[in-house]
Amino acid sequence: MKKLVIFGNGIMAKIMHFYFSRDSQYxxxxxxxxxxxxxxxxxxxxxxxxxxxxxxxxxPRDYEMFVAIGPSQMNSNREKIVKDAKEKGYRxxxxxxxxxxCMSLPGxxxxxxxxxxxxxxxxxxxxxxxxxxxxxxxxxxxxxxxxFSPCSIVSTHASIADNSLVGTAAVVSTNVKVHPKxxxxxxxxxxxxxxxxxxxGEKSSEFYGAISGKVKI
Length: 217
Known about the structure:
alpha/beta, 3 helices
C-alpha cells in the first residue's frame, strides 16, 4: 500500500483518516501540523510530526500527503498548505469513495464522499471537497479549492470558480456562473450570476412558539 501523511490534527483530519483507512489504497502513517499547533504528540493512535522538517522523517520520495482542512477563509487556508506541501516535493493524494459514482475524476487533494454523483464531461480542478450526496451535472465546470456541502447540486453548464463554498442542499441552476470566493448558503437556489466575494443566504425558518405539544400530527 502507498504511505500517506495527513496534514491536520482536528475533526477534519480524523474524518479523513477514517475514510482513507476504510477503503483506499493508502495506509495513513502519521499526521502533521505546524509545530506551534501541536498539543498532543499522538492523534488517532499515530504520531503528530511538525510540518517544519517533515520531509526529513517522511521523504516525499516515499510518502504522499493529504491536506485535511475545512472551508475556513473560503478554503484559502487549505489552499496555502497544499501549495506549501507541493513546494516540499510531496505528491498530493485524493480520496474517491467506492460508494460514489464519479464519471469525471477530480484533481489532486480532492475528497469525494459516499453517494456523490459526478457526471461525465465535467471539468474538475484541484483541492475540492465533495460531501455526501453532492450532485455535479454534466458539462459543468468546477474550479480549484472549493467545498460542496452534503446534498448540494450544480446543474448542467454551470460553473463554480475558485475558493467557493456551496452549502447544504443548495442548488446552482443551469448555465449560472458562480464567481470566485462566493458563499452560497444552505438551501439557497442560485439562478443568476453571482458577484465575487458574494454571500447568498436564506433566512431561518420562522419560530411559532414553544407549542409542539399542542400540534396535531
